[in-house]
Amino acid sequence: MKYSFTNDYSEGAHPNILEALVRSNLNQENGYGYDTHTKNTIKYIQEAVQDKNASVYLLSGGTQTNLIAISSFLRPYEACIAAHTGHIAVHETGAIEATGHKIYTVHSDDGKLRCSDIENTLNMHHDEHMVAPKLVYISNPTELGTVYTKQELEALRNICDTHDLILYCDGARLGTVICQAQFDLTLSDMYRLTDAFFIGGTKNGALLGEILVIRNNTLKKGMQYNIKQRGALLAKGRVLGIQFEELFRDGLYVHLAKNAMRHARVLSIGFHAFGYKFLVAPQTNQIFPIIENELIEVLQNNFDFYIWEKVNATHSAIRLVTSWATTDDAVTALIDAIEKYNPDQYGAPPKDDAPGIAYTDKV
Amino acid sequence: MKYSFTNDYSEGAHPNILEALVRSNLNQENGYGYDTHTKNTIKYIQEAVQDKNASVYLLSGGTQTNLIAISSFLRPYEACIAAHTGHIAVHETGAIEATGHKIYTVHSDDGKLRCSDIENTLNMHHDEHMVAPKLVYISNPTELGTVYTKQELEALRNICDTHDLILYCDGARLGTVICQAQFDLTLSDMYRLTDAFFIGGTKNGALLGEILVIRNNTLKKGMQYNIKQRGALLAKGRVLGIQFEELFRDGLYVHLAKNAMRHARVLSIGFHAFGYKFLVAPQTNQIFPIIENELIEVLQNNFDFYIWEKVNATHSAIRLVTSWATTDDAVTALIDAIEKYNPDQYGAPPKDDAPGIAYTDKV
Amino acid sequence: MKYSFTNDYSEGAHPNILEALVRSNLNQENGYGYDTHTKNTIKYIQEAVQDKNASVYLLSGGTQTNLIAISSFLRPYEACIAAHTGHIAVHETGAIEATGHKIYTVHSDDGKLRCSDIENTLNMHHDEHMVAPKLVYISNPTELGTVYTKQELEALRNICDTHDLILYCDGARLGTVICQAQFDLTLSDMYRLTDAFFIGGTKNGALLGEILVIRNNTLKKGMQYNIKQRGALLAKGRVLGIQFEELFRDGLYVHLAKNAMRHARVLSIGFHAFGYKFLVAPQTNQIFPIIENELIEVLQNNFDFYIWEKVNATHSAIRLVTSWATTDDAVTALIDAIEKYNPDQYGAPPKDDAPGIAYTDKV
Amino acid sequence: MKYSFTNDYSEGAHPNILEALVRSNLNQENGYGYDTHTKNTIKYIQEAVQDKNASVYLLSGGTQTNLIAISSFLRPYEACIAAHTGHIAVHETGAIEATGHKIYTVHSDDGKLRCSDIENTLNMHHDEHMVAPKLVYISNPTELGTVYTKQELEALRNICDTHDLILYCDGARLGTVICQAQFDLTLSDMYRLTDAFFIGGTKNGALLGEILVIRNNTLKKGMQYNIKQRGALLAKGRVLGIQFEELFRDGLYVHLAKNAMRHARVLSIGFHAFGYKFLVAPQTNQIFPIIENELIEVLQNNFDFYIWEKVNATHSAIRLVTSWATTDDAVTALIDAIEKYNPDQYGAPPKDDAPGIAYTDKV
Fold it and tell me: What's the pTM?
């Protein structure tokens, strides 16, 4: 059996969640999201974002959440602005377009959108022969593991206010941001700075589930109808309610994300300690070290991971993902393998001419 | 606490299913339906329908399954034919229309479509100013709990072949049909007689999940893409795989449906024994006894159920639903309540002039 | 050559319109509806509806207008209410559903919706499992040639206000209503009583073209974008502008409709004079006399028309349509043919037991 | 009054077309494309493409044609590949996405797609998490006035065959290609090398109208239904039929395009003669000379045209469009203005260091 760093959804759920499912199993509950567990979750989230009027919906997956939110928020001729690496732009099989909306993409090396990207996009779309850009889609962290800081989010909020745009954040891995003190970013900040965002459960300990949170009152109408119409209203809504109740009752959600981050950090430091650089600076639970193709082959004997992209003739970036379920053994084995490939190299600084970005603890 | 006969999704999952989730929880599995449990489920279903080439997909809910299947099967101008009581026509918030397709409905007293309905519909749609009816949507059992017999299905199959139509069956409660020897209808029959159908898990012991089975080769292409595009591809596909593996490994699926039917039958006989008739002849786990409005008020003190429709000035039909989780206590308590309201009436035959249909064991 | 009563779009345009196209042909005009002729048309319509803020758009056809207006007015889960005979429900190949919206139909013998139909529909749609009825679609005149009176429209307006519904009117043949003094219904009334309506040109003397007029401010946003997105923005918008400028500058539109009505009235009186009844009382330029099947065969030798429906073993309703281009010769020849089939019957009153509705001049 | 080089749709129709409309005006014709003129047009086109089985449909505009064709050709999860300058990608307000399909764009300096673009796109789309690229959209000429040669089209045909892709060509200005002997490209070539293409009428002398021609048998089914469903089936289909009958009966279509090209060529040579270069080599009736910003201001006094893009601090590219209706006077006046701005410069070769591409007669 190999150790897997392929993704953060290879295991089932955190044991507490399964226990909660077992514990409540024979209680009779209302269907379709009117169960007591969903109600409790909604209350926990409203408390976390400090607004009793926050609209909170429990859904099954990220693509589902994105397509329901975006198709509900936009009028037919309105479009999204996204980084070219954005999940909706690349890895959702045209789910947004299938609801009728164009995604206008902007090239981004680190997966983040800048205010200038938004302004340029607006400048290019000036009349009824082109779509009307209306919704700014960001992911935090991004698909490359990078993080929008509070200042960056505030700048985006500003520009969205100026141009009457909707700021929507895909938070499939949001836990790995809010669990890090250095970012000083809370659910309440995410709520205040976006019009709507979602909090990912699938990749942070749940069997399935994402929480859509809507702040902007003009976007709230009819959401339950849209959820049903898109086939996303579970008869046993309790399945989502129970899981998130468990994750948000006593801080389990942040605790699990911290675990994922602890492992990611050890790995980052490990690669750094042997002189490796990264495709983008490691900030969350997806890291992209650039290593020798030869080393890749060695690692593949004992570890599963994605080869992300070729960097030069001899080196490629790989993607390693940690999660709440990553074990110390797995991480240690990986560091050991690097050391074995680089005997006596511990502490060697990254070479200046090596491609990539050096790791710094404070990113 | 009241006893609930409101629906068949008030509880969680059958305990065996939860145990299976716990047992397999920390095994690392591939995502997106490529896990070993999903593969096993596919194998079980292919064996049940006696075709190794059957296409089998695990999805989360009935509306989701219907909209994915139908929007994949039809070209833009093609439409569905359905009974006016059909789930897609009434209770899916326009999910099919949201994918672009019209549903042409035919009035039906018992929830079933007849061959003549299909022929009449075809006769009325003769040129490009009207949609082209292409898919016949049936539910077995229907939304009124009635059952298409094998002969009826064969007749529908015939007419669909004659007119090059797709026969698609919503099997949200299919277990309650295939578990009854009197209907002599197997998954293999359902497969042979339809182009595609689904096997409901949510209402028969699973937390969530339906199995879409496609026989017609021309309808198979690209289904995995459509599933992803509609937001229905779970990252942890194992959640569905494990549940259905449990339900179909040793016959648990049929066993649970039999339990639901045992309770439904006792209730039907109970009402009958005190002279009550039914809106439609009870055949599956939804029964619609016609009772005094006064009795309804009495029952509401201790039982939850839907009042389905007013039948005359003094009587209404109620809907009672049983499931794998219905208890003997609940059923006994209900029969007792009826007896108490009708002292010394046991064995009284239904009055000839009472509205409704008398129960017969052999329906 | 047979005389045709098949429809009101068998000829080209009224000669004045062609002359206007020729006259203006080499003037250079802005594209996409910004030409001077379209501007003039907009001004004429705003004057006619007595509101300078009326939004006015020139489109090519009725189905196009319906689908653009309705898909722009509704949110994804909202639906239309229509008579089962409504054009959008039957004869637009699912165009509305193709934009994602369900049409809930109500049976109507005369093509008209009643207030009670709307209330019943609302009562049946009570939660997020069903679409939310939001737009009331009517046609004036209806597809059966019947007319909504001012009182009926006021009642519909009232109920729509009460329930926050959109009242939208398809006016493909609106000219034949507003040209009749007895109805006392002006474009200004249509504007005041609906949220939006369209004025048909194709069936009243134009080569092509319908005018969409929107009163409700909340429905105006982004319409030009929707028009472009649905492929309805003509590069040479002047083609529509010039035609409608001609139709509305000096009353040609009403003049042409009066001509159509003059012929329809003579035909109605003619059938009546020989004792025939009608499927629905003749009110506009579509009339549905019920005649002997034998007479139908006779007429088919010299006239083109639709056989609408079988009424009994010996009689059927036919549909006759007149237009601005109908000739006196055609009408006279038809009356002569009826007389020849019914010698010495002139002035015979309709038989009491004959199926159908007798013609009355004041309908 | 200024001379306009803004576009090729500022005037009405060629006079012959208007005469044909007048001539046939009172003949009664079948509606919805079953008139004799449409039938004749279909015959002319089938002869031109040398295939009696070619499917031919007359539509109103380019966006309409693109959206109907593409949404009919593709299954829900299939996508288009287009140059980033492609009309469907930029100037159709998301019309294709509104039918549910993603457009994957490839950067192109000259508006053309290369085979390598297609291969790269296919390589990047490998599983069900991404759309399946299926249709290659090209425009001939492109939106930048450049032309796909026969060899280039053959190479695209080849690669599409290899990968089972649909090759679809937007021919809004196709006349300006097929009218040039140097390209040796006929309607028959366009037919043979694509699966479907359209022949633009609006920009070559018609009031409105484009002809969709489909070769690939698997793409033909149900097109008339799709046309009706998208609101594109004109009741008076004769309006399109008469115009195209006139354009294709005796070669008027090519004659008009030659006129547009004669003017474009004179302008190109004129700019060249005074030492100007171009953004892309002039090949059709859209030319993009790069001139001094100062000259732009001078020209704007007497001419209308678009400023396309800034090229450097002192120069910008402008877009000049000629048409069948461009006058010798307009062209002469423009050349005179250039000469006046550049006295004694006639015959000066373009400076080597000037930005842009020099004109060569043989492109």
Answer: 0.97
